């Protein structure tokens, strides 16, 4: 069993600085057995993280204190029988790779990412194929 969480937050940094977060996350997550994906939709971050419970809980605390974003909302936290993003120490995508608005327009879902339920957000993230070149 694995533990995971999904959150949304608002970025406090320009998109150009996201690569630092991504590269550091890949390195740290690989060492901790954590996998997941980070997506930036305009000024919003949405991230799914999964792995061993103790490592995931420690990372959740660290992310909650990170001043590179604000208004963090946990959309889902729970156990997983298997990983959703196995093989990705951390995938990163933006609305230039995949747009929430385009995805929901085809599915008649809430138009705002902040109003969406966790199942829809997970489905959206699962449809973004971003290879992990680790």
Automatic annotation (TrEMBL):
One of its GO terms (molecular function) is blue light photoreceptor activity. It holds the Pfam family BLUF. PROSITE patterns: BLUF. Gene3D superfamilies: 3.30.70.100. Residues 1-91 form the BLUF domain. InterPro entries: Acylphosphatase-like_dom_sf (IPR036046), BLUF_domain (IPR007024). This is BLUF domain-containing protein. It comes from Palleronia abyssalis.
